[in-house]
Amino acid sequence: MSDNEFAIESADAGASETIPMEAGQIKKGGYMMIKGKPCKVISISVSKTGKHGHAKCNFLAQDIFTGKKLEDMVPSSHGTTVPVVKRSDWEIIDIEEDGQLTLMDEGGEQKIDVKLPTFPEEMADEIREAWNEGENTVTVTVQAAVGQEEVIAYKKEA
Predict the structure, then answer these.
(1) Peptide bond before 20: cis, by omega within 30 degrees of 0?
(2) Of 66, 83, 100, which marks where a domain is finished?
(3) Per-residue pLDDT tens over the stretch 109-157
(4) What gap in Å lies between CA 3 and CA 17, rounded to an integer?
(5) 7 is a domain residue
(6) What pLDDT does 6 receive?
(7) 61 and 93 housed in the same domain
(8) Please, which of 23, 40, 106, 111 could form a disulfide with 74 given CB 3.0 to 4.6 Å?
(9) 3-state SS of the chain: helix, strand, coil percent to 5?
(10) Residues 60-103: pLDDT tens digits?
(11) Domain count within the chain
(12) What's the pLDDT score for residue 7?
């Protein structure tokens, strides 16, 4: 390979996993990053401007993957980061003993890098039961943010 040839390893558009946003623009039910974790905002309380001139936003949010509650306080005019959250529906093809899922979407694409959910605790058993060793068709909703993917819901087809 000569010097003027390039080896391109990945074809990635370079899209960021988070986007910057002013804290005052984040709404209840929206998403934000707290302590490096993607969270869904449960409530926001805004304090009045103090002697230093910034109204503060106090966020109470829930980690979208673990369900843990987190708090953050940011001046409303300052920037914070918002995760890019994507949801997609997949049909279960197989469930391994260790909880590894084999999934397929409507276009026939397969995904094998997702495990049964750990939160809420009973959901993994419910999905296994609904799937019944392949007797039933079960569709799961996979939520992805900041390089992490997790099953957040399931639906048993009639």
Answers:
(1) no
(2) 83
(3) 999 999 999 888 899 999 999 999 888 999 999 999 999 999 999 999 8
(4) 33
(5) no
(6) 58
(7) no
(8) 23
(9) 10, 50, 40
(10) 999 999 999 999 999 999 999 999 999 999 999 999 999 999 99
(11) 2
(12) 57
Q: What is the CATH number of the domain that holds 33?
A: 2.30.30.30
Residues 18-46 have a mean pLDDT of 95
Within-domain flag for 70:
yes
User: Which residue carries 């997949």 as its tokens?
Assistant: 90
Instruction: Say yes or no: 79 and 25 in one domain.
Output: yes
- Domain span at residue 61 reads 18-83
Residues 102 and 148 placed together within one structural domain of the fold: yes
The verdict on 101 and 38 lying in the same domain is no
pLDDT band at 54 (very low <50, low <70, confident <90, very high): confident
Whether 150 and 103 share a structural domain: yes
Is residue 13 very low, low, confident or very high in pLDDT (cuts 50, 70, 90)? low
So what's the pLDDT on residue 37?
A: 95
pTM of the predicted model over 0.85: no
Scanning 107-151, the segments in alpha helix (DSSP H) are: 123-131
Handedness of CA 97, 155, 145, 59 (dihedral sign): negative
Say if residues 123 and 154 touch (Cβ distance below 8 Å): yes
